[in-house]
């Protein structure tokens, strides 16, 4: 089945540790995105990538890093510099942006920093 | 910031039509109206989008006013599984940051038996 996967679904880390969230898609999409969602809030864009080996900061990139070495994969690292890392993290992908830029979302990873 | 305004919550009886309003009074001529929904603790799901004309697909209908300053998403026969947060988003059909989706807080639709 084609789709976008994120793992793990739940992740616990101690404060001060870096953690990497996985995002994989087999939809042959060029563009990929990372969002963060806090309780009762909408989604906020962290980073996005329109093509392999290229990515751009979103609205809240501080304390996060990404890489896009392969078309299918867009891992997100939450570094110790991120002051409030506990949140629900969502990855999405889409074809090259145009009118029909429907974004497909993964199931999300809920990160809790203790 | 989101360029849309939606009511924070709405209720709908099961089997009835759910009409979700959205104001986007500052929409530009080249911006589309998109609707997504998010069921609790899942990723958002695309529903429908439109520019000027009304649109319909297997999930919903989208009615856009003639001045394009507001729109309504219609779920013709709401079921309990339609309980979710519904996001109305305007975006240009361009690559780059201008074309990114900006999610507001949406409308929490509760479908009741």
- How many distinct beta strands of chain A? 11
Spatial strand sequence of the major β-sheet of chain B: 1-9-8-3-4
Mean pLDDT over all positions of chain B: 92
The major β-sheet of chain B equals: 5 strands, mixed
- Beta-strand content estimate of chain B: over 45%
Instruction: Output the radius of gyration of chain B.
Output: 13 Å
- Helix and strand content put the structural class of chain A at mainly beta
Secondary structure tally, helices of chain B:
0
Note the overall shape of chain A. Answer: globular
Low-pLDDT residue spans of chain A = none
Could you say which overall geometry of chain B the principal axes of the C-alpha atoms support? globular
* Main sheet attributes: strand count, strand direction, barrel closure of chain A: 7 strands, mixed
Helix coverage percent of chain A: under 10%
Task: Report the count of strand segments of chain B.
Answer: 9
The string of secondary-structure elements of chain A, in order, is: EEEEEEEEEEE
Mean pLDDT, all residues of chain A: 91
Helix content of chain B: under 10%
Strand content of chain A: over 45%
Assembly state of the chains shown = heterodimer
Low-pLDDT ranges of chain B: none
Query: Hey, which two chains have the biggest interface?
Result: A-B, 29 and 26 residues
SSE blueprint and pairings:
The complex is a heterodimer of chains A (114) and B (113).
Chain A: E1 4-7, E2 10-13, E3 19-25, E4 31-37, E5 43-51, E6 54-57, E7 64-66, E8 76-78, E9 87-94, E10 104-105, E11 109-113
Parallel strand pairs in A: 2-11
Antiparallel strand pairs in A: 1-3, 3-8, 4-5, 4-9, 5-6, 7-8, 9-10, 9-11
Chain B: E1 9-13, E2 18-23, E3 31-38, E4 45-50, E5 55-56, E6 61-64, E7 70-75, E8 84-92, E9 107-112
Parallel strand pairs in B: 1-9
Antiparallel strand pairs in B: 2-7, 3-4, 3-8, 5-6, 6-7, 8-9
